[in-house]
Amino acid sequence: MDKLSLQDPVFATYVIAATLMILKAVSMSWLTVLHMMQVKGGFRSPEDIKKTPLNPKPNPQQLEPNERVERIRRIQMNDLESLPFFLVAGFLFVFTEPSLLLARGLFYGYVVSRLLHFAAYFTARTHDTRATHWTVGSVILIAMTCRTLLAALGY
Amino acid sequence: MDKLSLQDPVFATYVIAATLMILKAVSMSWLTVLHMMQVKGGFRSPEDIKKTPLNPKPNPQQLEPNERVERIRRIQMNDLESLPFFLVAGFLFVFTEPSLLLARGLFYGYVVSRLLHFAAYFTARTHDTRATHWTVGSVILIAMTCRTLLAALGY
Amino acid sequence: MDKLSLQDPVFATYVIAATLMILKAVSMSWLTVLHMMQVKGGFRSPEDIKKTPLNPKPNPQQLEPNERVERIRRIQMNDLESLPFFLVAGFLFVFTEPSLLLARGLFYGYVVSRLLHFAAYFTARTHDTRATHWTVGSVILIAMTCRTLLAALGY
Lengths: 155, 155, 155
What we know:
Structural class of chain A: mainly alpha
Oligomer: homotrimer
Largest interface: A-B, 33 and 36 residues
Number of helices of chain A: 4
């Protein structure tokens, strides 16, 4: 059995979902950078208000929290609480030899739920909308993990 | 050699420990939700005090930090600093072909140390108790990682 | 093909880089502990100012943020935003069967960029220096991930 190959459809599906989620996570760092540059603030370290080519006119207010920047940081924090666990859970789920249909449903379902969660959070939709998207992803993650645990226990 | 199979006892041991830790991590998110619903507060985003079915009587105090909610967030933060690295380190440790006894001792020892850490943190035991449980898990993680590094270097 | 073996040079390179990064991440937790012990403060939980053998003379100021401790926490936060994703992205990149030269360049390049980032952050170099090191690592991570995504899509 050569499950772990990009030629295997289930593993390839996992890799596509995993790499998309990694790119999503890394994008949050860049989006934080972008927003800090736009508002010229939201910095966190004392040395960030030294005069440099990237910050020619520093002032102490740049160290105060900026809501636009903090919003991205909250989105990123939510990613950190979820994505690393999806990345490992999804990988281990491959060993339960799911059907391609099930793998696609769960892996891509998770990806879509996280993109919708981002859209809702970024545009400041109500808590209930954001929570709904988050819940879909979390339930998929829990379901995959429980299925894998049972398989490892021999059920 | 087919190390990466749920039929392999060492790999299955890893998968059991890993999925338990993933479920533990995800539970922290749900526990945060549960506490936020109980105290009707501890929210973080300005839009969370809009009136919605889940928050019919919003008020600005809901955005203030709530110690019960913050405690879970600190526990979760501690998870994020540890669990993703255990998940990868444990997986790579499988490639060093440890005995089943050693694998069980380290993998399940880590799981138990994290559950005790959670119990101590959640019930606000002294720092020393909490730190002791944390240290056991951290030392297991470091030992596995060093062993794997040496094996990859050919020792 | 037995790509996933410590005898395989590309996989062994990944494992060396991954274990070094895991040790780096875990070190940040210990460095936080060390700094908290040195300044006898920077604690976060109310129970941390109970009298214990490790904290024989507690006082409420120990719960106030301490810049030396906060600096390590910011460094660690930066690790959490990057390293877990590198660990998975690097592993999946192995399946694209890169040349050993390319794998070494990317994996060890990432490791070096993170160590330089740590050095710049720890010694409070200017934001621009720190950002440069961070950018190198982030670009390597993005490049590996995009290459893997394309391979999984069949390109």
